[in-house]
Design brief:
The complex is a heterodimer.
Chain A lengths: L1 H4 L24 H23 L5 H21 L7 H28 L14
Helix pairs in contact in A: 2-3
Chain B lengths: L1 H10 L18 H36 L1 H11 L2 H26 L3 H31 L16 H4 L8 H7 L31 H9 L5 H6 L1 H6 L3 H4 L2 H34 L9 H25 L3
The chains are: A mainly alpha, B mainly alpha.
């Protein structure tokens, strides 16, 4: 009973790892690993299905939303962030923050000058 | 025996009674060493995200400015089933890697090796599928740079009707065959009828191009699927940007593929060390860190897949 039951505990318990393992180290229970895997596969199917439906502008946001959920699951459970020092998560989030700042500002800039751009005529283009 | 314990206590600077062979002298405890290593790995993964961020920025700008180009190129040349297959393969290999880390933490050494081998197989399978896709694009002439038929230097034949007899006006412009360098005339256009080349300042060209295609009734479905027919329906400025999609595609999946190859090397290294019985529940830091790297490779693919393959 206790042996089979140990995998059902969502939060890892201390005796899940060896007695000499460093403190604060957790082995992710099998059940959590399999559940996360199942959800990742399910969301892969969902994101393909959603892409077949015409949502206009919302398609890209739906795809990104699902990707963020999937990425969050990988980071939280496969990469242990849920049980880690929060500082590791802060590094991940700040990297994502600066990437989105970078992309956002670049998009604003490009968006403002794009209408004034004229493509070069092919015949007079330098080789 | 007593000598050994004395040495141990001096070596560990008296911080702990137990001497850990993996504990470097500048760390107080194995826990501190482990969390420091993990922190360093996360900083590295942060820089990886920033590096890919540059490519995602290029992608965002071109997709924002030329949405129809991305829709056309993805639908015409990218295979969603292969993309789904690779996503499932990578997610599965991520699962086996996470399971391997768990096995290392729990001292299950045979399970650790099994998981690492399975992860390696997943990585190899991913690369096999990727190479099938790359080969198909090579055969369809949609690689990068000059190997892309939509490249501006190559696509004169795509844009312009087959050159008829050059008019005197165009002959005057282009006919002198030995064009000296720097005259501003592209070699790819030599001999083409300049009067046929539509001026690139025409933005609303798409409507005029769409008209002749609608008349075809015999193979309407076939022509609707034909990439070249669909290409001609793009606006003049969009036609220039089709090869940019493939530059994005090959740069992003290529850099990701390099990470897969590096990950395979790292997993092989971990596998060799686990064969040497290096890891236990007391020391599994390299397994954990390589696992983090492999999960990041998976994480990036989770974003690449919908952005490149599922463009609506």
């Amino acid at each position: 009973m206790s042996l089979t039951h140990s995998n059902d505990i969502p939060a890892p318990v201390a005796d899940d790892v060896g007695p000499n393992a460093p403190h604060g180290v957790h082995a992710v229970p099998k059940r959590v690993l399999m559940t996360v895997y199942g959800v990742l596969v399910l969301f892969t199917v969902i994101t393909v299905a959603v892409s077949k439906v015409d949502l206009g502008q919302a398609n890209i946001w739906a795809a990104l939303f699902i990707a963020v959920i999937k990425g969050g699951l990988v980071a939280m459970y496969f990469m242990h962030l849920r049980w880690d020092s929060p500082f590791n998560g802060v590094i991940l989030i700040s990297a994502l923050f600066f990437v989105s700042l970078f992309i956002g500002l670049a998009l604003l800039d490009s968006h403002s000058y794009q209408p004034q751009m004229k493509p070069t005529p092919m015949a007079t283009r330098a080789p | 025996m007593s000598l050994a314990s004395t040495e141990n206590s001096t070596h560990s600077h008296g911080h702990g009674a137990r001497h850990d062979p993996h504990l470097a002298h500048h760390f107080d405890t194995p826990e501190q060493q482990f969390t420091s290593a993990k922190l360093g790995m996360w900083v590295f993964l942060g820089t990886e995200i920033l590096m890919f961020g540059g490519l995602f920025c290029v992608y965002s700008i071109y997709r924002h400015n030329h949405p129809l180009v991305f829709k056309f190129a993805a639908e015409a040349y990218l295979s969603v089933p292969l993309g789904v297959l690779n996503t499932i393969i990578l997610i599965t290999s991520s699962l086996t890697m996470a399971w391997g880390v768990r096995a290392a933490q729990l001292n299950q050494k045979k399970l650790l090796m099994t998981c690492l081998v399975l992860t390696l197989l997943g990585a190899a399978g991913f690369l096999v599928v990727k190479s099938i896709e790359y080969t198909k694009k090579w055969d369809e002439h949609v690689w990068v740079g000059r190997w892309n038929k939509y490249n501006a230097d190559n696509n004169a034949s795509y844009r312009v009707a087959p050159p008829a007899q050059p008019t005197t006006r165009s002959a005057a412009v282009i006919a002198p065959p030995p064009v000296s360098a720097g005259t501003g005339v592209a070699d790819a256009n030599a001999g083409t009828d300049v009067s046929q080349i539509k001026p690139r300042y025409d933005y609303p060209l798409s409507q005029s191009i769409q008209a002749p295609q609608a008349k075809e009734t015999t193979s309407e479905k076939d022509s609707a699927q034909d990439p070249d027919v669909r290409y001609r329906q793009l606006s003049d400025s969009d036609q220039w940007r089709v090869n940019t999609f493939f530059s994005c595609y090959f740069l992003m999946t290529g850099l990701h593929g390099i990470h897969v190859v590096v990950g395979m090397g790292l997993i092989t290294w971990i596998l060799m060390r686990s064969l040497r019985n290096d890891f236990s529940s007391e020391y599994f830091t390299p397994v954990d860190l390589v696992g983090l790297y492999w999960h990041l490779v998976d994480l990036i693919w989770i974003f690449l897949f919908p952005l490149l393959y599922l463009i609506h």
